[in-house]
Amino acid sequence: MSESSNAANANADASADATATTAAAPQQRTHRRMNPWVSFVGRRLVRTVVALWVIVTVAFVVLRFSGGDPVRNALGATASPELVAQRRATLGLNKPLPVQYAQYIAGLFHGDLGISIISGRSVSEIVATRLPWTVALALAAFVVILVFSIPIGMAMAVHTQGDRHRGSELVFTGITGFFGNIPDYLVAVILVSVLAVNLKLFPVAGANSAASFVLPVTALSISSICMLSRIARIQTFHTLNDDYVRTARGKRLSPMRIYWRHVMPNMVSTIMVLAGNTLAQIMTGTVLIEQVFNWPGMGTAFTTAITSRDYGIVQGLALVYGFLVLLITFLVDVVVALLERRSTMLETA
């Protein structure tokens, strides 16, 4: 009886352990099978926040250690000591650095980007007035780049596939290589000189009409169109050699249906990454272009603040540019991951 009772108890314990193990297994599997989107977006968000913090800290340090007294540099050597002291007190520059940094970070959370050292005007007010013009210019150039570069690249890939039309390929690579390496600033100066000053076809400067967009958008677009069309051509080459494209041709589908229904969708992720990088470059590239065309955007205010040593405006606008670039990069990563759910991006990013 004792042995039978012990055996029964052992079996009961084993059964209980097995039941507990079975009950715990789904929880473990559930933990292992947790949606990767949470960790993916979390990692990307942490990277973005850390990068933004670095930009904020660098901007803070550069303003305080830019060489000499930033208030004296901005107001000039003839400014009275009383005015300099008053402006330093207004900016909080007479407080210890840790206190300044803490107040600076706290102000950013409340939308306070600082004030102009010279005029005392709020940088947030400057951004609110000028940012829409910069965004409008960048988006217009971005649309033009996508509309021209992708079709041109795809058309050249189809036209030169299989080592056909070598002459056309050489002309294409030569032209895109040449114009793609000309700085946007130089293109802008040439356009103003030829089309605005000499031929008087477009306004020289300002943003008074739709025609005012033509020259700055063109200056921002030419280099990117050349580079992106070359990449689109190479990517189309690779896609045209894939098995599913050969299968579509075997079904005697029309060329246009093959290109737009089979080739184009499989290039979307690559195009999105390139487009995102291009948009980020355009946002920063508007700084010099706006100066050439006297565009009422942040770029003009940024360069003017640099030349006048108004580091309060420089600091605030640099933060806005950095935030826009980081935001674009973050959104592109998320969109690409959405488009390629089966990629290794979510697991390895």
From TrEMBL:
Record's keyword terms, sorted: Cell membrane, Membrane, Transmembrane, Transmembrane helix, Transport
Superkingdom of this protein's organism: Bacteria
Chief location category: membrane
InterPro entries per record: BPD_transp_1_N (IPR045621), MetI-like (IPR000515), MetI-like_sf (IPR035906)
Biased composition (Low complexity): 1-25
Residues covered by the ABC transmembrane type-1 domain: 131-332
Spans through the membrane: 45-65, 133-158, 170-197, 209-228, 267-289, 318-339
Region Disordered, annotated ranges: 1-30
GO CC terms in record: plasma membrane
Family: Belongs to the binding-protein-dependent transport system permease family.
Stated name of the protein: ABC transporter permease
